[in-house]
Amino acid sequence: MSIQVLAALKPAQRAVVTALDLEFPVREKLAALGVRIGRSLQVVRRVGSAGPMQVRVGHTDLILRAADAGRITVELLPEASA
Amino acid sequence: MTARGRPRLRLALVGMPNTGKSTLFNRLSGVPAKVANWPGMTVDLLTAKVILGGRTVELVDLPGLYSLHGFGEDERLVRHFLEQEPVTALVVVLNAVQLERQLPLALQLRSLGRPIVLVLNMADEARRLGIRVDAERLASKLDAPVLLVDSKHGHGIAPLKQALQQLVAGANSADVPVVTSASSEAAQLRADDGYEAHAAALAADAVDIPHALPARLTDRIDRVLLHPLAGVPLFFLLMLLLFEVVYGVGLPLQDGMQWLIDEGKANWLAPWLASASPALKSFVLEGLVDGVGTVLTFLPVILVFFIAMALVEDSGYLVRIAFLMDRWMSRLGLDGRAFVMQLMGLGCNVPAIMGTRVLRSRGSRLLSMLAIPFSLCSARLQVLVFLAAAFFSRQAAPLVLASLYAVSFIVAFGTALVWRRRFAGDEPLLLELPPYRLPTLRALFAQGWQSSRHFLENAGVFIVAGVLLIWWLTHYPFDAAPASPQTLAGRLATFSAPLFAPIGIDAILSLGVTGLVDRILEARDRLLCFGKLESMRTMVPQKTRRGRRPRIKSLQALLAELAVRQSDPMMGERCAYRFPIERVHVPGFLISGRNERRPDTPGGDAQRQHRRVAARSRPRCRLEANGAQLRRRHLARPDRTRWRSSRRSRVSCPGHPRRARAGSSARSGNTPMRPGSSRGCASARPHDREYRTGSTAAACRPGTAGPRCTLSIPRR
After folding, report:
1. Is the sign of the CA dihedral A58, A62, A65, A68 positive or negative?
2. Among residues A51, B102, B117, B253, which one has the fewest Cβ atoms lying within 10 Å of its Cβ?
3. Is the torsion defined by CA of B392, B393, B394, B395 positive or negative?
4. Higher per-residue confidence, A42 vs B279
């Protein structure tokens, strides 16, 4: 299991959130949408290589910019568990 | 810790942030809350004593939390409270609109083993969104009372109090504290996943979200609409389709509205006011009715536009557009949703600017508002198409047009770029991507109407006031000829003439430049498509030296053509344009509404100019022209356009049994034009374009000079 930032993930990869290096409003909003430490998420798709990404957390899909995703540290889950 | 003096029954309000816990707290307590300091806590909690069924109960408002297992400060705090302080029961406050996402917390709290009461707050909003919650079903599944409450408006508070009363009636005293984290972290996470699944099942069973497409179908649609390559072209295609619908439906409606107003004015109001004083008559017909009419004619397009916007927004596509376009828009300090508005601006800037309200952050809203007016609306397109055709070869014209579009985009986005530092929204693009939904027709209409009502209330008042002010300026004092130099507007124009004459701007035109009138007119013109007037204004330097005459003449001829084109149903109606036409003098071709002859008025240049125009454009209520023919002649000899010579053919009504010589009839001074006859003419020869002066035929009658001319649009 490798630690990396969410922004580096490819579509269909799953990971567990380990740290959120974000300021108050963004962090708060992420929490409301379900992105919290310990939660597992899956990247659904992204626009281009630097564009925003669509992430699935539980039953919620959300979109976030790569800049924000770059500050979310995740632990990659093996493909098999997906 | 149950210190003496503290009541033995305690209810704690728990829930996610922004679920209206505090509002509910105030509703339940009904008394000013007391701030209590709890041992071991860094924040103060609101508490209040309430009497429920004769027993005193302490109500505590706990901080919002997302998860019982979260790591946030507030979450730790709540855990700490629940572990330290005995609580009789938990009042779990959930936002009924986001029930699916909030239920897991309720399940977590239920697992603590305390009695819970589920309060689904914001029930009114949920109902408005078409979300139906089966409270009884949910209650039986959770084995806990579930109540729909709207704490903001106080709905459902009484039943809630009753339920709480029942709950505390059976309770003895505050129990021992609960244990919130007995298991390991890993076990908690596993449990949380279980809650998620359970919550999803519950929501699917008891919550009816309107026509949400199944998740798999949403995925499948997204695979197409959010395709890395096809997504953006598809988006443009869909928008094009939407434009077509908006204008295809909205413009005929606008036309109908205008017809209704004109009919009402000519057949009802005018006869009714026949005996009224001229000033009152003029005020009602040319001030009030025109003002209100201007607003009303725009209502259909605005309504249709907002219904379309509601469709885009409620179906869930708007968020997806944001997702697709954000890569480019974020560089401008805007988010993807602003792009939709920019595109809408191509149709008409006004609703697009109104539509920026979907942008939540004030910064990006202002930034989009700055950029949108630079996108070429369909009415400006009309002007540009014509200019391109007039000045460039057939091969070059499309390129010219395309380059104009490119320039407009560059300027618009450049504007955003320049101002982004000042206004850039700090709003992160962090949005939920909801499943696709089929909005109900009712919801669409409700939303469309709500936005349109806003327009009526806010812009409407302003527009009517503006039109009335213009009317006043051009009519006061009432014994002077409307818009003549004796009126307020005329005096203002004469006053500012010395300033503007040297740069070739006519006195009356200068009124526009001085801006006093125009500030107000703008409110109207912006709605009625600003582009046209603006381009006209810049195109008509009225008074020039002899050397520049031909060019200017051709420009003026061009203007005349424009006036004809404005009656083109394909283009002109897009902006149902009216403006005080005296301000644009086109020699030999009537665009002047003046039919007052004042040969003996002494005065300066402005008045001479007026006289000249007045002499040339004798009252003619109707003027028809075959636009194509006129243009051909004009293009063939741009320097020697001879409008006068073609006048004879224009004043007749080809193909119509009553070959009205409007020019001569008007000259004779007492043959009023029959209201509505021009319409018959237009329908007899639909390809003939026509326009007439005066907002109604009656206003064109000699002696009752209308202050402005209306280019009327043939209705088909």
Report:
1. negative
2. B253
3. negative
4. A42
3-state percent breakdown (helix, strand, coil) of chain B, nearest 5: 60, 10, 30
Q: Could you count the other beta carbons within 10 Å of the beta carbon of residue B290?
A: 26
Among the partner residues B69, B324, B431, nearest to A47 by beta-carbon distance: B324
Please identify which residue in the block is written with the tokens 């928008």: B239
Question: pLDDT per residue over B405-428, tens digit each?
Answer: 888 888 988 888 888 777 765 566
Q: Is B161 left (phi over 0), alpha (psi -120 to 50) or beta?
A: alpha
Instruction: Tell me how far apart the alpha carbons of residues B20 and B77 are, in angstroms, rounded to a whole number.
Output: 19
Mean pLDDT for chain A overall: 82
Report how many Cβ contacts below 8 Å link chain A to chain B: 91
Give the CA distances from residue B186 to residues A28, B70, B158, B192, B193, in Å, rounded to whole numbers and listed in that order: 23, 13, 42, 10, 11
Q: Give the SS3 label for residue B393.
A: coil
Question: Residue B405 — left, alpha, or beta (φ > 0 → left; ψ -120 to 50 → alpha)?
Answer: alpha
Helix, strand, or coil (residue B115): coil
Interface list for B 14-33 with A (CB within 8 A) = 16-18
What was the pLDDT predicted at A77?
85
Mean pLDDT of the residues in chain B: 65
Q: Is B72 on the interface with A (CB under 8 A)?
A: yes
Closest CA to B141 of B169, B165, B107, B171: B107
Give φ, ψ of B208 to 5 degrees: -110, 100
Give the DSSP letter of residue B676: T
The phi, psi pair for B502, rounded to 5°, reads -60, -25
Rounded to a whole number of angstroms, the distance from the CA of A66 to the nearest CA of chain B is 9
Using alpha carbons, list the distances in angstroms from residue B152 to B24, B58, B59, B147.
Answer: 8, 22, 18, 15
pLDDT class of B547 with cuts at 50, 70, 90: very low
Say if B248 is an interface residue toward chain A (CB within 8 Å): no
At B217 the three-state DSSP class reads: helix
Distances (CA, A) of B148 to B13, B21, B160, B238: 15, 14, 8, 39
Does the structure show a pLDDT above 50 at B665?
Answer: no
Choose from A23-27, B4-8, B298-302, B589-593 the range with maximum mean pLDDT. Answer: B298-302
Backbone angles phi, psi at B362, to 5 degrees: -60, -40
Burial string for A27-40 (b: 16+ CB within 10 Å, else e) reads bbbbbbbbbbbbbb
Q: Which residue has the tokens 């290589």?
A: A49
Buried b (16+ CB within 10 A) or exposed e, B117-127: bbbbbbbbebe
- Percentage of residues in chain B with pLDDT exceeding 70? 57
User: What pairs with residue B133 in β-bridges?
Assistant: B207
The DSSP secondary-structure symbol of B458 reads I
- Are A33 and B432 an interchain contact pair (Cβ–Cβ within 8 Å)? yes
Select the residue of A40, A50, A65 nearest B429 (Cβ to Cβ): A65
Q: Which residues pair with B9 in a beta bridge?
A: B57
pTM of the model: 0.55
What is the structure's pLDDT at B709?
32
Token pair 């119509």 is found at B656
Of A46-55, B134-143, B270-279, B455-464, which gets the smallest average pLDDT? B455-464
Residues B356-401 pLDDT 10s? 776 767 777 888 888 888 887 766 665 666 667 667 777 777 788 7
Question: Nearest to residue B302, comparing CAs of B240, B264, B340, B249?
Answer: B249
Instruction: State the Cα–Cα distance between residues B566 and B558, nearest whole angstrom.
Output: 12
Instruction: Give the model's pLDDT for residue B92.
Output: 93
ipTM summary value: 0.89
Residue with tokens 């949380």: B192
Is the N-terminal amide bond of B619 cis, ω within 30° of 0?
Answer: no
Rounded CA-CA distance B707/B701 in Å is 12
